[in-house]
Structures are given as structure tokens and as C-alpha cells.
Amino acid sequence: MLAKITACKIVPILRGMEIEDALFLAGCLQEAELNILEVSLNRPNSYIVLEKLAKEFGKDMDIGAGTVLTKKMACDARDCGATFFLAPNVSKEVAMAARDIEIPYIPGALTPTEIQYASELGAELIKIFPIRQLGASYIKDVLASLNKIQLLAVGGVGLENVKALFQAGVKAVGVGGSLVEAEWIQNREKEKVLERLKVFKQEVI
Could you say which residues form the signal peptide (predicted)? Predict the structure, then answer.
């Protein structure tokens, strides 16, 4: 699973979307050969959206659950079809639960101490969050010492900085609201969505 993420390089993040909007975007992502996505669990309908996407696209796409903060959330997300977990923090409880149910867990960290702790808990890919304020130079500085760690940058990733983040050494990025315009999704402007996805892919090759 983690190899798929680092091969795809872009993890689209769906947060607070209505089911039909999420299905439309997932279809566009699949057409653009971006076959991994995250559904953040911090909205009231998140589990419903996660389950629906997993049923509709799970055969061809890997649908992950984001903002997994507790063992219960991990188990509930697994029951809804999640194939990997992400979080904004490092949790030993979630790490152990993910290990027990054999689902990859990508914890969130920021400082070198947090990053190393996440690695000691068994994380093979660690989410650097939020990256917006610190930028690519921070990634480069961290990897100067922790050069065996694989990083996923999230929280402020857009077309203006995505190439620099990869040049600094990240293996993948998570992209939320800046991936495509919300009105394109709402208006079902498929061609505009696909063109933006193409541009993002060109930046990370």
C-alpha cells in the first residue's frame, strides 16, 4: 500500500464533500490514473462517504481514511472499507490498532522528535503536517539527518510549491482544497478537473 502511495505521489484529500460530489471527483481521479484518495473523518458524513466510495471504486482504487485519532475510529474506518489510515498526529494507540488489523498507518508529525517517534512505532511513511509555513527548506533540513525516513507532505500543498517539495525529498504529497476548484466539482465540469489533475501530475513527475 505504501509503495502504491509513493508511486502515485499524489494523495487527493476529500473533506466535507457530499456523496455525489465525492463520487464525481473519484471518477475524475480514476480517469486521471490517480487511484489513491483519502476521506477525512472530521465531518459528520465522513464514514458514509468513505463506505460509498469504497463500494463504488474499491476494486480499482485504494480509499484511505484520514484524521484517524483513536482505535475506534480505525476499526470503524476499516469496517467502511478503508485500506490505509492517516492522521495529523502520532498515536501509539492507533499504531497498535492498525498493526493488529493489518492496515498501514501514516501518522502525522512535525518536529524531528515526533518524526523519529513515529518511525520507532513502525511507520514506514510519515506525514509532515502542516507544511505550509515551513516549506520545502524544512523538509531538506530534516532529511539531512533523518535521511532514511520517507515523508508525505500535507497541509498547504499546491501548484506553487509541490515541485519544490519533491525536490527537497518528499516521497508523496497530500492535496486537499487546492487540487481542484470546488465550483468545478459542484458544476460537474469534468474537463476542467481533468486538466488541473494533469497539471498536478506534470509537476511531480
Answer: none
